[in-house]
Structure formats: structure tokens, C-alpha cells
């Protein structure tokens, strides 16, 4: 039987789902067919900072998993809410792509003109951009990566910030003028990674999909997501987190930035990959002890 893989319809989503489908076929010999699904996040014109964090890109796919219309689904992991979903299992987290953010514009950040207009709706990117260049005019924009890049070519904004992994998937690396290192801009928890979900009662499928799982990526993104969950922040909060993995140790860094970019709480901690949930929780608790709560509260008001 051909397995039905549910995916959003954007080029980025179709590309990443296609790669997962090919990988599953290569590893298990099972044929996979893509099924395009439109989600609330694709339709709504509201700013993500308002509607985000509630799984707007994810819920439509989960409904079709539960109804049996599709067998499994591929999401961008950073769009996945941190809470559990009834009846749904996170069956695999494949090897992560580049987690960094990229500037797409005519020059590197330091070389943009004073007061240049930068388009991004993400409070995390807004706050970190302001920390790097307080003079910039950061304006909210929405739409998929292609639409955002067009706003640069049309002159509506001077530059935009997008995930490097997404730009790779839609073959638009020529638009990149600078890649931000994590010490300049920490990515969103889970950025660059994918999530493969299926129904919890499909034991056969869970076993099959497990062949796609990459343990180091799972440990790293688990730490990042636990940090986010413990801060009780969603994808619309000014929270960055990145866990690197080397010498069999997970090195997690988290940041909370005030909306004006002036104040930030940035801390790091290392631990065993077998205990990555505790690593994320411990670091978040240290950030809260330093006032992360108050800083996040100011940012959303
Ligand atoms: N919120 C939209 C979204 N979800 C995942 C990605 C990029 C790809 C990824 O992080 O895996 C993007 C676009 C962006 O932030 O540029």
C-alpha cells in the first residue's frame, strides 16, 4: 500500500516533504505519495506574532492524520507547539539542516544604510536585529519566503531575515548577503529541523518512521524546545535557542531579548544528550531567575 504523506503546499514544504519521502523509500522500500494540505497559517493574513504559537501550520495536518486521510505528516519543527498533541506521535526527527538565520538584501548588516527598512514579523528577529543595529527600521511582513524575497526586489523593504535552511530548500541562496552566527542571532528553537508525525495507534508506521530519526538532532532540539516550554513562551516570543552537539555533549545557549534590543538575558549550559530535557529546563529556570519573565512580558505589550 502506498503511504500518504501530508504536507503544506508551499515550495519549501513540498521540497522538504519530498526529501523525507525519498529517504523513507530508500530505507524501507515503501512507496510514498505527497498529499497537499492547506493550513490556517497559509490562509490567515494576520501577523504570526498574533496567531502564532498555536500550531496554525500544524493543526490542519494533524486533523487529517486523526481522520486517517493521510498516514504521516512532515512539519518544520519550529512550527510545532511544545505541548503534547492527543493521539499524535513525533515518530522521527531527521538530521537537522543549517539552523542559522540569513540576511537577504543588498549588503551585510553592518553595511546597510542608516535607517534601512528590514522586514520581519518575528519578535525574536526584531529584538536581535535591534541589538545589533538600533538605527534600523524593522517593519512587520508576512507571506512565504518567496513573497518576502519579492518585497526586497520590489523595493518595499531593503532586506529581510529568513531561515537559511528554508532558502536552501527553495533554491534561493543567491539572495543571501550574510549568514548570522548564533552569537549574533540565535535561531528559533528547532529551526532547520523537521518533524515527522503519525497517529499514536499506528505501531507499524511508528516503527517504519523511526528509521528516519537522528538521535543527536533529537537530543539538541529536545533541549531547545524544553527551554521554550519552561519559559512558557511560544514561537512568537523573543526567545532564541541553539544546541550544538560535539564530543557527545549537548551545548545549549538560550536568549531572551527585550523588544528594544537593549537588554538581553543570554546563558549557556552543557549536558548529556540522554538528559536533554533536563538541560533545557535547567537553563530556562536560570534565565527565569535572572528576570526572563519580565523581559518577555515587556516584549509582547
Ligand atoms: N515560520 C515559518 C517557517 N517555518 C520554518 C521555516 C524555515 C525552515 C526551517 O526552519 O526549518 C520558516 C520560514 C523562515 O523562518 O524563514
From TrEMBL:
Assembly, per entry: Monomer.
Co-factor(s): dipyrromethane
Domain Porphobilinogen deaminase C-terminal: 220-288
E.C. designation(s): 2.5.1.61
Domain Porphobilinogen deaminase N-terminal positions: 3-205
Top EC category: transferase
Organism, scientific name: Actinoallomurus vinaceus
Co-factor remark: Binds 1 dipyrromethane group covalently.
Domain of life: Bacteria
Protein name (database record): Porphobilinogen deaminase
PROSITE patterns with a match to the protein in the record: PORPHOBILINOGEN_DEAM (PS00533)
One protein family per Pfam: Porphobil_deam
Residue numbers bearing the S-(dipyrrolylmethanemethyl)cysteine modification: 235
SUPFAM superfamilies xref list: Periplasmic binding protein-like II, Porphobilinogen deaminase (hydroxymethylbilane synthase), C-terminal domain
Function of the molecule: Tetrapolymerization of the monopyrrole PBG into the hydroxymethylbilane pre-uroporphyrinogen in several discrete steps.
Other remarks on this protein: The porphobilinogen subunits are added to the dipyrromethane group.
Catalytic reaction(s) noted: 4 porphobilinogen + H2O = hydroxymethylbilane + 4 NH4(+)
Family membership: Belongs to the HMBS family.
UniProtKB keywords: Porphyrin biosynthesis, Transferase
